[in-house]
Every structure is written in C-alpha cells, then in structure tokens.
Design brief:
The chain is α+β, with helices and mostly antiparallel strands. It has a seven-stranded mixed beta sheet with strand order 3-7-1-14-11-12-13, with helices on both faces. The protein has a five-stranded mixed beta sheet with strand order 9-17-16-15-10. Strands 19-20-29-30-31 form a five-stranded mixed beta sheet, sandwiched between helices. It is globular. The structure holds dioxothiomolybdenum(VI) ion. Dioxothiomolybdenum(VI) ion (MOS) binds next to loops.
Amino acid sequence: MLHAVIVRCPHAHARVRAVDTSQAERMPGVRAVFTGTTPEAALAWRFGEPSSPFKQSSFLFDPHCRYAGDEVAAVAAETLQEAAEAARAVRVEYEVLPFVIDPRQALRPDAVSLHPDGNRVGEPLVWERGRLEDGFASADVVLEESYSTPCVIHTTLETHGCVAQWDGQRVTVWESTQGVWEVQEDLAAVLGLPRSSVRVICRYIGGGFGSKYRLDKHTLIAVLLARRTARPVKLCLSREESFLCVGNRPSAQMRLKAGLTRKGVLTALQLVNLGVPGAYPDDTDVGYLVWDLYRCPNVRIEETSVMINAGKSRAMRAPGFPQCAWALEQMIDALAEKIGMDPIELRLANAKDFLYRRNETPRLTSTALDRCLREGARAFGWAEARRRPRAEGHLRRGVGVAAGMWPNPGGPPGSAIVKLHADGSVNLNIGTTDIGTGTKTVMAMIVSEEMGVPLEAIQIEYADTATTQYAKVSGGSQTVITTGPAVREAALEVKRQLLELAAEELKVPAAELDLRDGQVVHAGGAGEPRPLSKLQALGQRQVLIGVGQRRPNPPGAQGLPFVAQFAEVEVDTRTGEVRLSRFLAAHDSGRVMNRLTYENQVFGGIAMGLGLGLTERRVLDRHTGRALSASWHDYKIPTALDVPGEMECLPVDPHDTECNNLGAKGLGEPATIPTAAAIANAVYHATGIRFTEAPITPMDVLRRLAERR
Ligand code: MOS
C-alpha cells in the first residue's frame, strides 16, 4: 500500500503560475506526483461536491486557489514520511492575489472577486407569508436586534480518510463516510464508471456531523493515484487539514424583528441573514425556525450568501438551526420579559398543536413541544430556579430555556434483508453506515425483539455497496426512522414464514404460535417450546429470507421531533467565565429505541451546542487570511471539564402510532439546536446582559460588565 499527501495552497488567494515536481519525483519511495497538468487529474469538480446544485465547477487541482488550503498537487510514496517529504519538495510558483475575508466587504461592488460571477451566491432568497406591515401594526411590542454566530468546525475525532484499490476496471474504496451510496454515486459520476464498478465500504467512522456526507477531493485523489500506480493508496488527512479543508458550520449575521401583542401572540417575524459559505457556494440558509417553529401569520425571511477566501462550509449537525435558534430563542426571551410573561408560557402560547396545518406543509402526526416545555420545566425546577437569588459573592446565577424542532420525518427509499439460519442465528443486511450513533445496536434490537432471538445471535452486514443494498445517507437525523421500519418489516416477514412452517410441523394454527428466546412457543403456554434448531422444516430450507421496505409516510402527514432545553449557569464576575452548572434536555423524538444511545446523542448535542455558545470559533488572520485556529490547541471544543456536572435527558414520548411503524422520530440534530440559545438566555437571567454574538467568551463578559459599571 502507498501513502498519499496533498500539497495545499498556503495563501488565502492566489493563482498557480507553475509547479515544479522534478525534485519531488526523484525522492526515495515516490511513485506518483499529480498536479493540475496531470492528464488524468484534469477533472471538473462541482464547487464543493459533485452533486452540488451550484452549476459552475472548478478543477480538482484548480490553478485559481481561493483559500489557504486549496488543493494544488498530490504525492504517493511508499511511506507516509516519504510522501510528506516529497510533498514539501514540490515547488509551486504563486501569483499572490488580494483576498477578502470580511463578508460585508465581500459584498461591495469593488471587492476582490473569487468567481467570475462575483462573490454573492445567486440572488437573495426570500420566503414570505402574510403581510409584514399589518403584523407589526397590530403588535403592542416590537423588538429588533442583531445576532451573530461564528464559523465553527465539525472537529471529528477521526480525520477524513480512505484507502483506494483498483482491480481491473473496478475500484474499491474503504472510506470514513456517512454515506457509502453518496460516495459511490459521486465517484462513478466523476470517473465516468457505472455505479456497479465502484465499491465503497465504511466499517467504522470516528465522527462525521455532516462533514463526511459525500465524496471529498482527497478520496478522488487517492483513487486516481491508485489507478496510476496500480497499488492500493491510503490518504488520511492531518488534524490541521481537518480544520481547514473539509467543512464548517457557516457563520450567520442575523437581523431579527418581532412583533407581539400584550397578551403574548406573535404577529410578525422578520429575519435578514447574511451567511458565509467560504470560498465556494453552499447552502447557508438559516430561516426555518423563524418560518415554522411558532404560529405566526406574517413572516418574511431574506437570506443572502456571500463567499470569502476561507475554507468551505458544509452541512453540520442541523444545518442552519442552531444559528437561527440563537437569534429567535433569545428574541422570544426578550419579548417575554417585555410583556412580563414567563418565557415558557410565551412559547406555549405560540406553539403549534398537531392539528395545525403548517403553512401548506403536511400535518404533524404528533407534537409534544408543549409537554417538553411543561415537563422539562417541572423536572428542571424552573419556577424555583427563576426565583432563586442571582447574586452570591462574585457569582451570578441564572437559568434559561430555548426550544426547537427539526423538519425531517425520514422516508423511502430504504430496505433491509433478514436471513434466519437453520441454527437459529440471524444475519441482518442494511446499507446504512453507523456513524457512531448506535445504529447497529438499535437495528439488532428491532430484529431481536420481533423474532425472539437473542441479540448475540444477530450479525449485521452494513455500509458496503457491493454486498448490501441502497440506504440513505446517515444524516439529517433520519437513520433510525428510515432504515428501522424496513428492518422491522423484514424481521416480521421472516417471522411470518417461520410460524407458517412451524404451524404445519407442530399441527398448531400459526396464530397460536409465537417466537421467544430462540424457540417457537405456544401463545397460551400450552405444549413444549421448540428450539428453532430443532424445527425440521427450517433445517430442510437452511435459510429463511425476509425483505422489508421503508413504507411512505402517512399521506399528508409527517412525524417531526421537538425539543426544549433548560440551562443553569454561573457567571464569575472576576474572571468573566461562564460555567454551565446544570442542563436538562426534554426531547419529543417519539419512542426511545435504546436509552443509552438516546442519551449519548443528547449529551453529545449539548456539548456541541455549548461549544457554539461559549468557546468555539474559526479565527481568520486579517493580515494573511489564513485560519489561526487550525488545531485542537487553538480551537476550543468543550472538554470533560466544561460539560455540565448535572446533565439530564428527559424523553417525552407522545406514543405516535402514525408517523412510522416504530413510533420513533429523529434525535441527533434536535439535540444541539437550542443549546447555545438556552445558555445565552441563562446568562442574561444571571447578569441582565444580553449577549447577541456567539461565542460568549470570558473577555466579552468582562468587557460588558465593565461597561455597565
Ligand atoms: Mo447531517 S449535518 O445531516 O450529517
């Protein structure tokens, strides 16, 4: 196996004049050096991903480098060390160009242009309903405020990486990915191969959060190097590259105006957002929660997206939602105070019930947002905590709440195959990647419960485009609710076949038989249980196969998850430090499939939201345009010492029998949507200071406290 290293542009904006690979090619162990002029690397690359809706494209090694990190060349060598040394020996002559990293400056007509059509990604997107002027006219209170969230990085524990190997016209890629089928589709399209000739396998993945959603350049580079050298090629990005080159949550600069009656009825919401996808186009819209979390007749949202010379954004855990919650849920908090209403009561007054037909979107099969707010408040001790004295020496204590929702109900296509062997053991076959959320555990539990076989008897084949069947990407909080129902149906199909065989053999009607502990049992308790391995009919067939499909969601309806989160903070007025002392997350994600993996999602989401609210941001150097925060030393993700000492997960299950055959709804993304906003509201409650710019750093707190004094 060879190892590959990518040569990246060190300038925020530059044009490659010439690349001299002669020295690198003579170095020990070097087997291939690719640049923009290498014939087989002269491939068009849709900005971002091959499937990107943005029609223009660049090249794999584009001579126009638009951020410090753009790919310029790549080397494959016998060892990683040799590849790294050869990469350093590649001489690139750059014409350094002026750069722009400030989004407002990038919008100006005289700004440096990153692309022929300018820096703006298309025209501003406007969503509108009702009449905004009427809404504000009928309001008793109108508030307007600017909010911002920074660019934050996914920081997957395992960096992006793959191994590529060719066998004739067929390529196999072992990839750390959320979606083997997306990588297969994209690779086949770029290489001009049938999808059947591209095999993508994902065994394990150390975090994705949206950054491992589709084909990346590094994978295509590994595939091309492997074809040239006729050797397997491994290409794993460095930690620094993982901060620079494989995505981020785009920053948002939001202006929000809201109208409210004295009785607490929202009459108008207006959001203007400026999103920054980095150097290439991407979806930076944030407005959904303003559009749809609360009942509000008059809404206008305007989204502008402008490119700058920085690493490109990508989907990141609930794309757009934590940003929007930061603005909307702080605004709701401020509105509640303005009319002297409890912020939970104000949310309840404007929350939608499940009968509400949401602005032409399908009816909800259930919503327990009201229960999340009420039961969460009770479990958290909200009323007492709101009344507790806030000052204690140099500490200021406060509590805050924020809510959210997520718009993905899951759905077809999705399929599963269950095979029952004559000895009673089972293979489950799904195309889904387990991105660390416990997918395999949950799917095995579904089979185990339906078929009455022990968990240990079940093995899972998964996420291999050659040996499993199509599955949607593990993202969008849709995995359990898309693949799970198909798994359940497949298990029930095998059970049906098995009981039919057993009925004949045992001379008992199938309706009176059931499966338990690996045995066929009589429903009434009569007769001897028969172990599956002793069923002659099963032995004669050797295997029973059941295929399950993900059925469509109920016509005109969908099951969506809701969340309310509660934070308690201590603000140290001497150091400016905000400590999250207590946190409670009340989630309506429907049925809890597995308590451990459920809590794991929720606690992970809280930690990530804490980072957005208090510690994380990409810092670009205004002198060079380069990212100064490209390591875990300089980029501050929360650690075990930062997460709340008391963290509670409160599932609220509306027993939704309509949304799908599991009664489960999405969870992974809701878990991080309102977290930062809840913290900001708690900081306001503690200090009386409204922090509208995330993250709330100790320096900001000290500065604002000093200003107030
Ligand atoms: Mo996600 S951001 O749908 O992996």
